Amino acid sequence: MTQPSVLVVEDEPAQRAILAYNLEAEGFRVVQAGDGEEALVLIDEEAPDVILLDWMLPSVSGIEICRQIKMRKDTRLVPVIMLSARSEEVDKVRGLETGADDYVTKPYSVLELMARVRTQLRRARPGTVGSRLEFQDIILDTENHRVSRAENEVKLGPTEFRLLTTFMEKPGRVWSREQLLDRVWGRDIYVDTRTVDVHIGRLRKALCRHGGDDPVRTVRGAGYALG
């Protein structure tokens, strides 16, 4: 199954970086555009599965971009989530009437926005977003952020949850500390590699709280693997 892609159209670099980081942490491939003209080019080149589209853009507005996307036969079914600081109901109605599939007002909750992206992706490509991962007696529900082992609930912090998700997506793969830092914390965040060991320790403790063998294997000189 190909990695689902999201086009982020946002002229503010800091906002664009935050969105890209969180989307990548959720397992999406991210394409970025800083204005409407660039967005139209990338829509043709990249064929994104979901588009996050800021209303206020230089050169071509988000409303106009949305209108063009929905007028074309080859792109009209691509879900568009409009992002806007305009909170008036009339603006939301205008955005939706233009063809946007969802409308999110700034400032927004990143977690809520990620959930909305997954919802639109499931509608556009059913089965693309797997909500359940299983390994031996461990079950991870990515949609509801729940983990259980041998039917016992496992409580994990956000970082440990992302670590376990990474492991369970590719059981048996050995991940170096640097790879886990890039995948879980992000390339632009400086974190000491020893921090990985601390969070691996917390993950192991949580998974073994109700008994059972430690499923996380230390590969000396290489990193960590599940199983």
Low-confidence stretches: none
Mean of residue pLDDT values: 87
Helix share bin? 40-55%
Individual helix count: 8
Q: Give the H and E element order.
A: EHEHEHEHEHEEEEHHHEE
| Count of structural domains | 2
End-to-end distance: 23 Å
What name does the CATH topology of the largest domain carry? Rossmann fold
Question: By helix and strand content, what is the structural category?
Answer: alpha/beta
Largest sheet: 5 strands, parallel
Assign the CATH superfamily of the largest domain. Answer: Response regulator
The total count of strands amounts to: 11
Strand order of the largest sheet: 2-1-3-4-5
Name the assembly state: single chain
Radius of gyration: 20 Å
CATH secondary-structure class of the largest domain: Alpha Beta
List descriptors.
8 helices, 227 residues, 42% helix, Arc Repressor Mutant, subunit A, alpha/beta, five-stranded parallel sheet, Rossmann fold, 2 domains, four-stranded antiparallel sheet
What this model shows, in words?
With 227 residues, the protein is α/β, with parallel strands linked by helices. It folds into two domains: 5-124, 3-Layer(aba) Sandwich (Rossmann fold); 132-226, Orthogonal Bundle (Arc Repressor Mutant, subunit A). Helices cover 42% and strands 21% of the residues. The protein has helices at 13-25, 36-46, 62-71, 89-98, 110-124, 158-169, 177-185, 193-207; strands spanning 5-9, 29-33, 50-54, 80-84, 102-105, 132-135, 138-141, 146-149, 152-154, 216-219, 223-226. The strands form three sheets. A five-stranded parallel sheet has the order 2-1-3-4-5, sandwiched between helices. The protein has a four-stranded antiparallel sheet with strand order 6-7-8-9, with helices on one face. A hairpin with a 2-residue loop joins strand 8 (146-149) and strand 9 (152-154).
